[in-house]
Amino acid sequence: MPTVLGVFEVPGDVAAVATKLRDRGYEDLEVYSPAPFEEIDEAVNPKPSAVRGFTLVGGILGALTGFFITIWMSNDWQIIVGAKPFASIPPYIVIAFELTVLFGGLLTVLGMLLVGGLPKGTPGSHDPAYDARFSGEEFGLVVGCGDRDVAEIDGLLRAHSAKEVSLVAE
Amino acid sequence: MTPPPAMAAAEMMTPEGPKADSRANRDILRVMENTTFGWLSLVVLAFLVLNAAVSVVFYQVYKGLGIAGYSHPIFWGVYIVTFVFWVGIAHAGTLISAILYLFRARWRNAINRSAEAMTVIAVITAMQFLGIHVGRIWKSYFILPYPNQRGLWVNFKSPLLWDTFAISTYGTIYAVFLYVGMIPDLAIARDRASGWRRVLYTVLALGWQGTSRQWKAQTRTVLHLSGLATPLVLSVHSVVSWDFAMAIVPGWHATIFAPYFVAGAIFSGFAMVLTVLIPVRRIYGLERYLTLYHFDMMAKFILLTSLIVGYSYTIEYFIAWYSGVEPEQTSFWLRAFGPYWISTWIMITCNTLVPQVFWFKQARTSIPVLFVVSVLVNVGMWFERYVIIISGLSREYDPGVWGVYTPSVPELTILAGSFALFSFAFLLFLKLFPVIAIAEVKEIEIHAKAHGGAH
Predict the structure, then answer these.
(1) What is the ipTM of this complex?
(2) Rounded CA gap, B295 and B350, in Å?
(3) Count of structural domains, chain B
(4) A116 close to B (CB below 8 A)
């Protein structure tokens, strides 16, 4: 399956061309950009990111762990203070809060790695379309398409002021 | 026909690689590549002082805590003062990178990376003092709840335990925050480096390509980490303040301690960011990225937090008088006019009077004034903790057990060593990682280019 690469300079052009391609039914799109741009994100990945689920689960797990370890440990090693219960909830809120943040944060990062498909090898080895220019100031748009569609996509990319268009893979 | 200019000819002859690389890439990556004599001499100096301090720590392990200037009833001295000081410094990073991020304050882009790095390094520096203060460094792990043969668990009702959890969570989350924010920049460095640096950045960049899926995951992660870090930072210095406020020592037992410590922490953190960035900007020619506008904004923050700190000082004295509790009143009276009066007046002068110059725009945009004020604020904030801890402990309820503490030479050496450790680690960071968030700077520049400077 051929892969067409267009190089752009303005994020708005990339977003416009990505929207058009998706409208015409080309779903196999990938955009390389030197910085995050909302318009590109909306055009290519309109769905909300799954990372938030990881944060939520991590946070809940952390809070539960915090209360569990403090209450269980106070009852396992009992310090007798007057006639009071061994576990004392108010101070344990501090521990539960810290663990909420700790677990929430670490799971968020795990989510980033899973959702973003990281880690990978060097881009040059697994991704022929990637170019060091895309960590400079240029944008790359890669479209996977059928043999007959190459000319159409080429025209569309150039119409949206692509600097250059090339065939990455036959 | 005229021959093309030499530059153009050279560019035509080197078609390999990115021809006209982004200016932000070149300017910021250059900081990592140039090894100047100034940098080298600072590293050597920091390393030597650090070694002196490490030797003193070993000496303390051999001799015991007797080498510190402790005398009854004061057994919390310079070590704890310095610990609180460094935890405070660590707070600017969160304010800049998380809270200002949530408020969409664009000007933070120029300073967030260095502030985050300072946060991580300051937490590491602070953590050294937990072991040094305890004395038996080899038993520091007793503070963690780990399964052991005695069936013993730690006491979670103690603020010192909350502190352990707060500081270690803060250190971990910040190290992660710094790294996640840096991945795109590491990829930039990977694409342009050679030799061992290429290997290092290839591993650290995790194969980042800047695809829209990766950017989405990364920006969401930064957003969520900011959301988590914001209450975290408020909790960390609150918990540190409760190490004192939960005790019944006069001068410590106050409900205002948590907000008072948090404001002080942000105040000192911003000052440290200025103290460090002013020379870095000068040495590496980063005036295009760290502009006077950024310094102006930071000076305004210092002014704001200075006013909060000044208000807290006033309220502390007012409440001491208004409470009618004699030990409380005596403690505060002796703070200002007792044996530690010099420290108290240094603290009041440096933290509340000196920053008032920032009411004037000329002062906020004058590099020498900013530098001097930031150093004085750091001095003042160290003395603030000194006054709270030492003067509190030295004058408790019973005049029969009052005492005076003077820091010993070994303690002061270790204090100097903490600054050396901080400087040494930050200097290495400058060499290894981009000191300004390149991708975030580019986001603004590309927007400006696309919309004709409308942003």
Answers:
(1) 0.91
(2) 19
(3) 1
(4) yes
Phi, psi angles (nearest 5°) of residue A115: -65, -40
- The residues in A 33-92 lying below 8 A from B, measured between CB atoms, are 33-37, 40-41, 44-45, 49, 51-52, 55, 59, 69-70, 73-74, 76-77, 79, 88, 91-92
Residue B10 is predicted with a pLDDT of 39
- Interval A120-143 mean pLDDT: 79
Q: How far is B101 from chain A (nearest CA, A)?
A: 15
Instruction: Name the phi and psi angles at A116, rounded to 5.
Output: -80, 0
Element (DSSP H or E) covering residue A5: strand A3-8
pTM of the complete model:
0.90
The C-alpha atoms of residue B241 and residue B235 are separated, in whole angstroms, by 10
What pLDDT, in 10s, does the model give residues B351-369? 999 999 999 999 999 999 9
pLDDT under 50 in chain B at which residues? 1-18, 453-455
Q: Supply the pLDDT for residue B5.
A: 43
- Range A3-47+123-169 has CATH code 3.30.70: yes
Q: Residue B368's domain is classified under what CATH number?
A: 1.20.1630.10
The answer to whether the CB atoms of B217 and A73 lie below 8 A apart is no
CA atoms of B352 and B380, how far apart (whole Å):
9
